[in-house]
Amino acid sequence: MEPLDAWWQHPEPGPGDLLREREVWRVEAGNGSHRGVYELAHSVGDEDWVLQAVSD
Fold first, then answer.
1. What is the 3-state secondary structure (H, E, C) of 12-33?
2. What are the residues whose beta carbons fall under 8 Å from the beta carbon of 24, sequence distance 6 or more?
3. What are 1-56's pLDDT values in tens digits?
4. What is the pTM of this model?
5. Strand partners, 10
6. What gap in Å lies between CA 2 and CA 56, rounded to an integer?
7. Order of all β-strands in the sheet with 35-43
8. What is the separation of C-alpha 4 from the centre of its chain, rounded to a whole number of angstroms?
9. Which of 3, 5, 16, 55 could pair with 37 in a Cys bridge, judged by C-beta atoms 3.0 to 4.6 Å apart?
C-alpha cells in the first residue's frame, strides 16, 4: 500500500498562481425531489476539476 500524499508535499500556490485564468461552470442538478447548485472549476491548462461550491 502506498502512503497518502501529505499537505506539505504539495505547497500552496505562490502569488503568481493567483492570477491564473480559471474556468468555472455553475450547474443545477438533482435526483428528482432534491436539487442543488454546484460550481466546478479548473485552472486553464490543468486537467483536474474541483468542486468549488455547493448550494442546496
1. CCCHHHHHCCEEEEEEEEECCC
2. 39, 40, 41, 52
3. 555 566 556 555 555 556 678 889 999 998 888 889 999 998 888 888 999 888 87
4. 0.53
5. none
6. 36
7. 22-30, 35-43, 50-55
8. 19
9. 55
Cell numbers found for residue 36: 442543488
The size of the chain, in residues, is 56
What is the rounded distance in angstroms from the CA atom of residue 53 to the CA atom of residue 20?
Answer: 19
CA 17 – CA 38 distance, rounded (Å) = 24
Residue for grid cell 491548462:
45
Q: Do the Cβ atoms of 52 and 39 come closer than 8 Å?
A: yes
